[in-house]
Design goal:
Number of helices: 20
Largest sheet: none
Number of strands: 0
Distance between the termini: 37 Å
Strand content: under 5%
Order of helices and strands: HHHHHHHHHHHHHHHHHHHH
Helix content: over 70%
Structural class: mainly alpha
Radius of gyration: 23 Å
Length: 471
Amino acid sequence: MQRSHHYYEAGLVFLVAWLFRLVPWLAGLSNPARFLAPDSSEYLELSRRLATVGEYGAAGAAELFRVPGYPFFLASLHRLGVRDPVWIGLAQGLLGAWSCVVLYAFCRRLLAAGGAASANGGLRFAPLCAGLLLAVSDLAAATASLVLSETLFTFLLLGLLLGCECLAAVPGGGRRPPSDLRPVAVLPRSRSLACAGLGLLAGIASLTRVIFLPVLPVFAIYLWWRGGGWRTALLFLGAALLLPALWSVRNHARADYFGVSTVGAINLYRYNAAALTASQSERSFAEVQEEFTQRLAAAPDQRARAEWASRRGREIVLSAPVKYLGLHLRSSMNSLLPGFGDLARLFGAEIGGRGTLAVINGEGIIAGIRHYFNGQWGWLAAALPFVALLLAVYAGALGGWLWLIRGGRMVWSIPLFHLTVLLWFLVSPGPAAHPRFRVVAEPLFCLYAAVGLALATDKVRSAFSKKERLT
């Protein structure tokens, strides 16, 4: 009976998530161009050549900027006949809905194995709350319809987090979680094979979004700290680095560039160094970035562009490191801003035009709001419920995290590990930060927000019960 109850909850999460992704997808059908983002055309061309010619990159040139994970995913859909961006958006909507179910399962596993569920009975609704919060996220729902890598990466990340929690040693003197949560239901019996499989999954995630690559040692340390031992940690890390290392060798053989991707070097120059230069010269960021982009375009190939961008970007940033650090941290907060515009544009709204973040950085949040909505205040009214929900998620996540880590209610390494991953996704982009970058961190926000909101609800209910007994 208990298992059936959990299946019903998981089904509810999937149904709500699928509806929240299906409705904007249906709205976008009137204009298929709404399913495309600025990067989409490159992804589609790379996947087309993979599926038809078997080459990654333009004819006679090795692609170094885009890592292959997402184009391989699109190429797989291409071979199945799913080639139009419209149908890619529908497939990703299903994947996004399944991500909400995986978050539900991950939250159940985490609270049971971490010991928090036994510390407070009110948390029994937290997994359902976490899944539903991600299901109704406007940013996650809209991004699922766009030809972008965030939805695929979020699914891979959640699978990796769930797998690591299943692989980690159970705390509390050998106490096992409930039978329906045991790792054997999810992972192979052999711990070594499970660990290697998780490592390969982490490598695939790194080749989907290369920003994940520096976090791989954090996952290995977490597995070691949770009782897996140094052999488990090294096996995971070795398997995780295998595919990125092979891709780096491929880049060296094809283009004499020894690295997984040039995206770090290019973004360092076009965003980080450009933002600092604009701040120092009192010019607009857009103007400086356009100037830097033209300089890069003069380079003969991607390798030369990366080498120039890396060298020049470091020189500019290191010329004023303290000022840059403040600029970097301040700009990173852009990831926390509401992302309602992507959802509204699927319905045909002409809001959220380019340059909003530059206006916010230069003139403040109020000017940014005016620029963003461009006088269409009806869409501002439509955005307010989603903004209120986002603020509730932030407040709940902070409260939930503090409650879990305080007083030993959960093995402290678990929330600390999640906080490290969350901060990396939010802080590392710096001036390149965009609300869409929060999509990959949103499951962790929803997880801890569910804990915080479940505790708050339980306290309110207890207060009313106590008041009724007194009267």
